Predict the 3D structure of the following.
Amino acid sequence: MRFFIALMIAMVCSQISFAQCTTPTITASGPTTFCQGGSVVLTSSTAAGLTYQWKLNGTNISGATSPSYTANANGAYTVTISDVSVPCSSTSTSTVVTVNPTATIASSSLTICSGASFSITPQNGGGNSIPIDTQYSWTVANDSVSGESNSSSSQSSIGQTLVNSTSNNQLVVYTVSPQTGTCLGSPFSISVTVSTHVIPNVTDPADQSICAGSPSSSINFVSPLNIPGTIFSWTNSNTSTGLSQTNGIGNINSFTSTNSTNSAINSTIIVTPSYTVSGLTCTGGAQTFSITVKPLPVMTSAAALSICSGVTVSLPLTSNISSTFAWQALSNSNVGGESTSVQSTSTINNTLSNATTSDQIVSYTVIPTANGCPGPSQSVSITVKPLPTMSSPISASICSGANPWSFSLTSNISSTYTWQAASNNNVGGESTSVQTTAAINNTLINSTLIDQIVIYTVIPTANGCPGASQAVSITVKPLPSMTSETVSNICSGGTLNFPLTSNLSSTYTWQAAPNSNVGGESISNQSTSVINNTLTNLTLIDHVVVYTVTPTSNGCQGSQQSVSITVKPLPSITSANVTSICSGSQVNLQLTSNITSTYTWLATSNSNVAGESLSVQNTSTINNTLAHSLNSNQIVDYTVIPTSNGCPGPPQTVSITVKPIPTVNPITSQLLCSGNTTAAVNFSSSFGVVGTSYSWTNSTS
């Protein structure tokens, strides 16, 4: 039960504390922004049993413990409420109070000359307190002075030009009201004594605009009022123009202007007339004039250039500042196209032609001008390089396959060359891509039987300048090719009579290689169209004579041909050229020769002999059976011709003696008895063959 009562009491107290210490709010009695000297009442929300503490920028304000507080200073105000019975406390959000300051300015005085202007901008210090952005309005009245007037609009300074039209000094009092924003300060006065002495004046000098390096005009200051004792003080804003003084008194003498920049520079000169009388200096209105020194342009484009003859120069002219240009060439009699009269373009654009074979120089004088100021001239040298002209022939003839062959390229000046052939389908070996040698050195093959032309385009280049191209026509003559036989044979002692032919109309040279076994071959060059040696084989076997034949057509030698001539030996009869047979017998004479041969033989008719062959026979034996009925020898002559390997040897006459056949006269038989002596038997022949002898045989011994 006690616990429940304690819990209830705690809950009630907690509710009371929450209600009493709720965050307070501040209510302002008016604007929280006001001028210096004003205030605003700040009031906190209240409740019974609370205490209060006001704070400025988080710091307790001494004695500010009421529910309300009158605030008159800048800052953030808060109030903290406390209930000591609970206990509890809570602080409000801040309320910012802004107090705008007001100006406090002491009065002042000054003396000016009649016609002078005064201007006063009050400054802090010396008892003055002037907020930023303070503005001024004023009231003034003096009928003897002109120029004064009230100003109801806010000004940042106090000033007017006052003229005293009387013979006495006049006092003009300005009552000035300062205002900062919406806050008015305390009025103050400015007392201006306007002297009877008038301010001097000065005639405004003319502005000058000159080119760097040129003299300026002298400047003599003049005052139309011509008040005695008037002096002229001046200031110079820029000494880099050549006027080296920053200030001076009196006239300004002529000086040599300078400008080391790329832009115009100015000296702003302010001249002020003044004089002093009775301790009062009267200063007139200043005049401002300027001396502008314009820079001289300096050429920055190239002073030298090389071009090829016939090319347009196209040299852009430039300088360090924007300029126009005048340029002119010095005449060169060896060059055409240069402008010898003044030109005004920004590019040297002559097309120059060099008429010689050496470099020529055209000298140009260029003058840049910027804003009317001519800069130093520039000499520009244009080297005009000559164009090479081909001097080598435009045509040549060569034989197909000529190697080495070189067509030297030449021009009127030392040059390099590029050359290239137009393709010819009938020719091989031409360079159809660009070549860079000093000679056309293709090995050209003509694949036809007629002349072919290969056209080369040659371009000479000297010192980087290409000359006019030249068309060079190379006639490629075909080479003859032998069509006659390469082998033949003859019999020893025969004349060769070997005709030479080729695929083109040609002449020929031919020559034999010596062969010691053959006689008659020409071992020196011959120039006939027939190999016509009479060749003799000195041996019993075949021998070959080798001829080298060279055809030439239209000055072009074709390939050499080797012609092999086999010289076959002639057979010579070695068998007997005489023999004898008895009439009615067969000759049977075996024919022989020094080499294997065949034979033909033929008898010369003998009317007393029968059996001889009167038509040609081709056996190797004379085999006629010859007979005659006479009692004397008869001769039959045969002509025998041996032939070996188709070559007939010299004929041989073979004489066959056909001897007659003797006869025996009949012998009488004897019949004898044994022991008887026979009668002598004498043999005789009625045929009468001289030299007949008789041989006999006895059948019984």
User: Anything to note?
Assistant: The chain has a mean pLDDT of 93. The longest helix spans residues 2-20. The helical segments are 2-20. The CA atoms of residues 256 and 333 lie 43 Å apart.
